Structure formats: C-alpha cells, structure tokens
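To close the section, here is one more complete example, presented without commentary so you can practise reading it yourself. The ligand is magnesium ion.
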Amino acid sequence: MKEVKAIIRQFKLDNVITELHKIEGLPGITISEIKGFGKFKGRDEEITISEGLHQLVPKVKIEIVVHNDLVDEIVNTIQRTAHTGNPGDGKIFVTNLENVVKIRTNERGEIAI
Ligand SMILES: Nc1ncnc2c1ncn2[C@@H]1O[C@H](COP(=O)(O)OP(=O)(O)OP(=O)(O)O)[C@@H](O)[C@H]1O
Ligand SMILES: [Mg+2]
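Output:
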C-alpha cells in the first residue's frame, strides 16, 4: 500500500480531480486547502499571504491511499494535469503505508483500502 500526497495549484484542482475520477479502481480522495512555500519562499508566486514574517502561498493538498499497482497511473495523471511549467507547480510525494483500518467493518490492510 502507498500513500500519494500531492501539493498542487488551486486552479488546477477541478481538472486533476476530473482526470483522477477516470482511473478505474480509484478508492477515494482527500482534499485540503493548505499554505506553504517552496525553494524561493513564495517569491516566485503571484499570490502570497503574509503570516508574521513568512510569505505563504495557498495550495491544495490531495491525499490518496492505493494498492501499489495504481500508484504510477495516479502519479502520472496528477503530474500531467497539474503542470503549467512555471515555478510553484507543486510536488508529489509517494510513501509506503503500513496499515489501513476501515472503521465501519473493522477490516484491516489492503482489503480496507
Ligand atoms: N520539500 C517539501 N516539503 C514539503 N512541502 C513542499 C516541499 N516542496 C514544496 N512543498 C509544497 O509545495 C508547494 C509548491 O512548491 P513549489 O512547487 O514552489 O516547489 P519548488 O521546489 O520551489 O519548485 P519550483 O522551482 O517549481 O517552484 C509549497 O508551497 C509547499 O506547500
Ligand atoms: Mg517554488
């Protein structure tokens, strides 16, 4: 099992979700509105928010937990649909996931995804 976590531009979200929905077997998606900065700490971005001393850029985080065999398709879809080519396009992180518990059924592991 893997967790795919992507930080993308807000205006790309609709397009990314539309394309992810086309992937057969996609089990679920979590979306959060977040703020952050990359290497140039917001200076390469159009819209920044001043929080104390820090310039933070609003972004969207997408989290998806999947079987290993869907990871490449998901990562490729996000990279293709979230891309503009300009600084600040975001990143995709892939990590191994140890366990999943489905609260309704108490199923554990891959079957619970
Ligand atoms: N190493 C990181 N760890 C955690 N979050 C990150 C990391 N790099 C980027 N992010 C998140 O992704 C957002 C977009 O980062 P961004 O695309 O600007 O990265 P970058 O390394 O500066 O690349 P670019 O040169 O394309 O701007 C940041 O606002 C932050 O929320
Ligand atoms: Mg950057």
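Once you have examined the tokens, check your reading against these statements. The pocket of magnesium ion (ligand 2) is lined by residues 38-40, 44, 87-88 (CB under 6 Å). Residues 20 and 77 are 7 Å apart (CA to CA).
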